[in-house]
Amino acid sequence: MRKNISRYLGVFVLLLFSFYYTDKAVEIVKRNDPVMKSILEVEEKYKVSSVSAIIDGDTIVPGLNGVEVDVDESYKKMKKVNGYYESMLTLKEVVPDDSVLRSYDKFIVKGNGYKSDVALVVKVNNANYLEKAYQIFLDKNATATFFMDGTIIEDKMNLIEKMAGDGFELENFGYNDTYQESMFSWTNNMLYSITNKEPLFCYSEYNNYDILKLCSRNEMYTIRPTIVVKSSPFYSVKNNLQEGSIISLSLTQETIKELPTILSYIKQKGYQLVTLEEVISEAREVEK
User: Fold this and answer.
1) What predicted TM-score, i.e. pTM, was given to this entire model?
2) CB–CB of 273/267 below 8 Å?
């Protein structure tokens, strides 16, 4: 019995060494291939370093992905045509060491300042002006992120389904004006059933650690807006607008009146109106 075990163990060890040296031999051959050598020669030319997110205590501002040549994928493609062609290089993004993607325990206080993106956040804890706001965004060909109270979601399911279909981002604004642990999953599940998309964000206007902990446990990000509009919506936006701004608006009569002007102004200044998911994205356009 022991002899059999020893024999099988010896065969297993020999197989391991065989696979190891076979892989090493394949790698050596590949590295000496003229196609691979050509790819490696231009690798540095296309490399762009990533930019880490800015972390300050409990807050974070997104960074920017880097870029590098996907050596193995490029090699596979070129070997199919048996030659090196620079136009066939495949590039891939490289996530920074400090990334917003892994930071559920931080307040996101601004979007990506390396792009000309701006996100409008609309707080919805009553439905008085919801349809009007939705129509203004449609008329202006603009998008936004709507934080919806659970009671509004229950009452306006058809409207919310239409908004989701038109590309608006719908997020959890708690239930009865507060984030209750007992109702948090219920609100998330309602949104998912309507939009077929998992909610990503919670909302707080100050460092509310109860909200942060609740959302972090559910692997959701907590937003603390860059600009919180309390009055004079147009001038509040005009005087504080910058790349990556996360602008919070309440659904009031004053906001509805000035919303078309706000949207036109943001676009005239060369900014792109995007959702929260887009404004915090660290993705970089990969071009050869």
Assistant:
1) 0.86
2) yes
Q: Is 59 helix (H, G, I), strand (E, B) or coil?
A: strand
Phi first, then psi, for residue 8 (nearest 5°) are -65, -40
Q: For residues 61-91, b (16+ Cβ closer than 10 Å) or e, as one string?
A: bbbbbbbbbebeebbeebeeeeebeeebbbb
Joined together, the tokens standing for residue 144 give 């936004």
Contacts with 186 (C-beta within 8 Å, 6 or more apart), sequence order: 150, 175
Percent of the chain at pLDDT > 90 equals: 84
Identity of residue 87: S
Mean pLDDT of 24-48: 80
Q: What distance in Å separates the CA atoms of residue 210 and residue 121, rounded to the nearest whole number?
A: 21
pLDDT tens by residue, 167-182: 999 999 999 999 999 9
> Of 243, 248, 249, 233, which Cα lies nearest the Cα of 271?
243
